[in-house]
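Dig into this one:

. . .
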Amino acid sequence: MQGSASKPAPTAPSTAGTTATATIAAPEPPTTSTRVATTSGDASSRRTRTARTTSSRAELGAGFVRIAPTVAGDPANAVMSEDKIAKVLGEKPEDERFCSACGQPVGRGQGGEPGRVQGFCGNCRTRFDFITNSPKLTAGEVVGGQYRILGPIAHGGMGWIYLGQDTAVSNRWVVLKGLLNEDDEDAVASAVAERQFLARIEHGSIVNIYNFVTWEGAGYIVMEYVGGESLNSKLKDRRKANGGKPDPLPVPEAIAYMLGVLPALGYLHDLGLVYNDLKPANMMAVGDSVKLIDVGGVMQADDDSAAIFGTQGFQAPEVATMGPSIASDLFTVGRTLAVMCLNFVFHQGPYEYALPTPADEPLFDRWESFYRFLLKATAAHPDDRFQTADEMFEQLLGVLREVVALSERSPRPTSSTLFGGDRLAGIMLDDERVVGADWRALPVPKISPDDPGAAFLYDLPELDPTATIGLIDEALASGTAPDSTEVRLRRARELIDGGGAAANVLRSIELVDPWDWRIAWYRALESLKHNHAEVAAEGFSRVWTDLPGELAPKQAVALAAELAGEYQRAADLYAEVIGVDSSYVSAAFGLARCRVAAGDRHGAVDAYRAVPPSSATYTEAQVSSARVLVGQGLDVVPTANEVSQAANTIEAARIDGAAKSALAAEILEQALVSIESGELPEDRDARIFGHAMTAKGLRRSLEQTYRDLARVAETAEERFALVDKANEVRVPSLL
């Protein structure tokens, strides 16, 4: 067995101008690059392809996992007791003091002197005040002649939050959110902004804004009361139940909640808004759904003058200097997921913007696709992250599907919007042979229907690579096909398939869109064809990080690892692929090959058995498992039971008589050699093709098999050779 079981570090999302440097067995930390100028002008329009538009309200768990409903309870019970209010009053601890605008630490002590509780941020000059005063509104008070106050229910970054009832609308429950203090201009501006544009927001997963009122010199936002429990409270409850030790949410549950709010973020982005402050405290689980409950940080994405509110440890690093964006919003998704699933110091120190590595976090070692998702979501530069909530939703859904399938050991097959299916069956039919580790079995990226050349490519006949390239070139020359990205990609694929060089074609695509993951895919494919397995693994790894919810890149990394001799790494990935989707039959064959290389013949047989009966490769899988059982081509001696299993497998296989006889001859020959050499003891109780597992029994069976084959031989020469073999193995007799 060659190679080792080492696992490569996932590479960063695809970036322009990068080259492969890491090998399969040499982990390397993620790297990133910034956007560069392109020949097509502003590159901000990249990634217009999205898998689909998410619904206005996603089913919690997306059908893959069931989340227990969160009971809303009596709203009146949410009012804080006097003791709880007392704990909030006073000065905020120094290690919790951060600027509300830029997120930098403020109010910290120096030289043994305590920090100031009031002042201005040294970075952006935003005023801060960390003295929490008593609630201004009292129980029974009617604000604006309409909203009867029951009492405070929380204290947030912008002040006290109160529970009330709307006396003008059937006493419905409402929440009034007040400003930290009326002298804070940024806080006032934020509240005014909410009143002006938040009325447009109508989404089932976002709290409704009813009104904005002023009362006794202060402003209040009136919004829908959402019962249930915040995810931050759920985390605290789990910690308390665990004896004070952190007990993060299970990965499937955390992903389910995030899938529930991603459509809401996408909705805001479609309106030109950014949420800014996603975190567990702002996600409320209620019933069988989840809602965003705090819109205090929502702002117009192009508003350069608005105050920016965020939370240290969740906010993207560029927000303080570049402002918020869709990419910075999606950064908070990655950080929130990490905080819900991991136990790490996320608001300061080395992990303020980064993630632990799989070496330090077992969860990442267990769920590599989840780790890759978080790497992409929280990439250092916004251009290297997910660019739309829809794109992120699709990939996170794929990650959830994988985690659930592998956890429950129950495949969850589904079609991909980006890749075609496994191609092993087609290769077998074309070549009429058993394929080994073959790059042609990898799925092919699908044609984007939005591409101008899509119609031409759909009608392009399946010919050999040279003929196909000729048709493409003729169509380009005549103008019947546009010189589009998809047309160029198809030409690159045909060049690779035909043994040509695709570098120039791929480079031309890269000049237009350096973040197109298919560039890395086809470069890796070309490297694989030219036996540069480690370089290919690096390229496929980049694609896997770009598309962490897709199985095709993982399958490709496994294939490259196998060809590089990293059999354990390849086997682990193959097993996960087939465990998620049994239609990836090339993963089953690859897993079997890797297990044979490791000397695990029975593991290889189990891998072949993972091929479903509906697959066109099923018979070949059964035949291959029989050959492995008898140790064909291997330096092993099968047991009588293994030989018997192999014979039974061949007898049950759905193949014609001549082919079945030929396979029977292979097994009989192997067994006879093992018995007559003394390596395999005779066993009169064991049966093989109806005969006892003895030298005489095997000779009689083999003789008959040779004669059966001779009767259907296509040539006289072949028939005579088989008759000679039959005579050679015939059991000697006195007659």
